[in-house]
Structure formats: structure tokens, C-alpha cells
Specification:
By secondary structure, the chain is an alpha+beta fold. It has 8 helices and 14 strands. Strands 3-4-5-6-7-8-9 form a 7-stranded mixed β-sheet, with helices on both faces. A 5-stranded mixed β-sheet has the order 11-10-12-14-13, sandwiched between helices. Its cofactor is Mg(2+).
């Protein structure tokens, strides 16, 4: 992947960040914030960014479709055909609760699927301006720097997202010996790059919303890590079965899977 070649997706994300997100960070009005489901928040900024990106992305690949998080809140059946054709997955503002609270990290994320397989990924920090991106078979990048998952001694620190994790699985996590369990950053678009860069060794997600995980799983695997379902089978964006284990290496994935007692 040429780090110097103009990237229209990155340009769209940067425009959305400077036009819609950064100016409203810590400047939201009360009526900019809505609850779309119990415990699930959305802002006018999420919707504005998705509305901007949708026609622009569709125009980049004639015949493609766009499936965005906020569209799916209104029309869930959009998720039914992720395995067909070319599909843009859009999370306009990952870390919405962070945004509402006036804190970072935040991310705007896009993935391009071809017949259900992620072939492109973009994750932009809309405040700091750092772009993490990947193309299938062409590596993972932090801006123009090729990124390879950090080596290390094994499973020492893991992010476990417990909000949707069943109680019996939480008990399993508690049995991990010698592993520091971290709560995460409330932003998958920041957690995936952080894992690849060595901030922690593995992440365990239960809920697998496609727009949250398609960009990051491609990024981590292109950096040399592993992302798979808990039984070891490959992750696909259209898969709605819960449970996703991500690690910075095959060795760490195997160690985490063994600790999880995957059979």
C-alpha cells in the first residue's frame, strides 16, 4: 500500500472530522443528545457525519452499498446482506458516550467489504487527526508508517468488555491467572490500534456489531495479529454469533483461548 498515494476515504473522514466532529467536541447542546435505545446514545453529530459519508462513499465504488450504524438503528435489516457485493460499513463516531462526556478517545471508522470479507479499513481519530488504515494483503499503517504488531512475552494484559458478557463467562475471565484485566477505552476504533501497538495483548468482545469490528479486525490481522471467534473460526462482518477474541500474535491468541477454555 503506497503511503503517499491520495486516499479518498481518508480525505472524506478528515473532512467530516474538521467540519462536524471537532467543532462540536465539548460544545454539544442538550438537544444534540438522544437515547436511541436503553443505554445506547446518539448525537446529531453521529447522524450528520453518516449523512455526509453515505453518498460520498457510494460514489467511490459504483454499485456499492453503504450500511451505517445510525441507518441500522432505524432499519436493522440492512445487516442481512453484508455477504453480498461491495458494502461500505460506517461507524460515524465510535465512542459516542466519550464524545457526550467531553473526553477521548474517539474514532470515525469505515470498512469496505467484498462479498462479506473486509478488504479495506480506516480508523481516524477526529480530534488528534491520526489515521490507522489497512488493505487486505498490503499491511497495516499508522499514517505513512507501516505497523507490525508488537512482540512481547505473552498474555499479560487483556481488555475484556463485560457489559454484554454473560455472568458465567465473567467467572471464566476471573480465573485468568497472572493477567491484568482492563476495562477498555469505550472506543473500538482506538482499542484495535492500541492492541497492535502493544498497549495490551488481547481483547475479548462479546457483542460483535459489524461497524465496530470489521475495520479493526482487518487492521490487526494485517499487522500480524489474530482475530477469530472463540472457537477459532474466522471472523466475518456478517456473523452475528457473539464472542470475538483478538490478540497481537498467534501465540497470545492461543494462550488466551486456552485460558478461556475454548473447546
Amino acid at each position: 500500500m503506497s503511503a503517499t498515494r491520495p486516499d479518498p476515504v481518508a480525505e472524506l473522514l478528515r473532512h467530516a472530522a474538521t467540519t462536524y466532529i471537532a467543532p462540536r467536541f465539548r460544545h454539544l447542546a442538550d438537544d444534540d443528545v438522544m437515547q436511541k435505545a436503553p443505554g445506547e446514545w446518539v448525537t446529531t453529530v453521529d447522524r450528520e457525519v453518516e449523512a455526509f459519508l453515505t453518498p460520498e462513499l457510494r460514489a467511490l465504488v459504483p454499485g456499492s452499498r453503504v450500511v451505517g450504524e445510525e441507518q441500522c438503528a432505524e432499519t436493522p435489516e440492512l445487516l442481512d446482506q453484508l455477504d453480498e457485493g461491495q458494502v461500505w460499513l460506517v461507524d460515524p463516531l465510535d465512542g459516542t458516550f466519550n464524545f457526550i462526556s467531553g473526553r477521548e478517545p474517539l474514532s470515525s471508522m469505515v470498512a469496505l467489504l467484498e462479498d462479506g470479507v473486509a478488504v479495506g479499513a480506516w480508523m481516524l481519530d477526529p480530534i488528534g487527526g491520526v489515521l490507522h488504515h489497512a488493505r487486505r494483503g498490503q499491511g497495516a499503517w499508522r499514517e505513512d508508517q507501516r505497523l507490525r504488531a508488537a512482540p512481547g512475552p505473552g498474555l499479560r494484559r487483556a481488555v475484556v468488555k463485560t457489559r454484554f458478557l454473560p455472568q458465567d463467562h465473567q467467572v471464566r475471565v476471573a480465573t485468568w491467572q497472572g493477567v491484568e484485566i482492563l476495562p477498555g477505552l469505550n472506543c473500538a476504533g482506538a482499542e484495535y490500534p492500541a492492541l497492535a501497538e502493544g498497549a495490551f495483548d488481547a481483547t475479548l468482545y462479546w457483542r460483535k456489531l459489524a461497524w465496530d469490528h470489521a475495520p479493526g479486525t482487518l487492521f490487526v490481522t494485517e499487522a500480524g495479529g489474530v482475530a477469530a471467534r472463540l472457537d477459532g473460526t474466522p471472523y466475518r462482518a456478517g456473523d452475528r454469533q457473539p464472542g470475538l477474541l483478538v490478540a497481537r500474535s498467534r501465540e497470545v491468541w492461543d494462550e488466551a483461548a486456552a485460558a478461556w477454555k475454548v473447546e
